[in-house]
Write a structure and sequence with these properties.
Elements lengths: L1 H20 L7 E8 L9 E10 L10 E4 L2 E4 L1 E2 L5 E8 L7 E8 L1 H12 L11 E7 L10 H22 L1
Antiparallel strand pairs: 1-2, 2-6, 3-4, 3-7, 5-6, 7-8
């Protein structure tokens, strides 16, 4: 009887271990699209949105992914469509530069290694992400160099000066 209990417990832990490990994506094929806010005249922060599709050679689906954006970890959202994901974040317009922003995407195993390295104060640059996507930001329009109120006041002063000068010559 004792041997039977040991066999059942061992089988239980082996099966549980297989579920806990999960599958990792082998040779991911990634296609992505991105959007960024370009008008900063009425918004407080610039929004970055990246949608991407992941196809694995071993047909793994519904991965739990995490994004590393400039050292900040962001969970990746799964879409209702199969193998589609989205990551989004915001940044201060004064700190955002135009150009390509690289987003490192980690699976659960890579994310665990990343968090462990961060907790221990180790260098994370040598950790390899599952894949990287690029988000292109074309720049941010912050408004005209001269405000319209200033132009209206300056025009009013010029018109007043011309009218006053014309009146004094009469």
């Amino acid at each position: 009887m004792a041997n039977y209990v040991h066999v059942v417990l061992l089988s239980y832990f082996v099966i549980l271990g297989n579920f806990a490990l999960g599958d990792t994506c082998q040779n991911p094929q990634v296609s992505s699209e991105s959007y960024t806010t370009t008008d900063a005249t009425v918004v407080v922060n610039i929004a970055f949105i990246a949608q991407f599709t992941v196809k694995c050679s071993n047909n793994v689906k519904n991965l739990n992914l995490y994004a590393d954006v400039n050292g900040k970890i962001i969970p990746v959202t799964k879409s209702l469509e199969e193998n589609k994901y989205q990551v989004s974040w915001t940044e201060d317009p004064k700190k955002v530069s135009s150009g390509e922003h690289q987003v490192k995407i980690y699976d659960e195993e890579g994310f665990a290694l990343l968090r462990k390295a961060q907790r221990n104060g180790e260098d994370t640059s040598n950790l390899k992400p599952s894949f990287t996507i690029g988000v292109n930001h074309h720049g941010t329009y912050t408004g005209p160099w001269v405000q319209s109120e200033f132009m209206a006041a300056a025009t009013a002063l010029v018109v007043w000066y011309l009218a006053y000068s014309a009146k004094s010559k009469i």
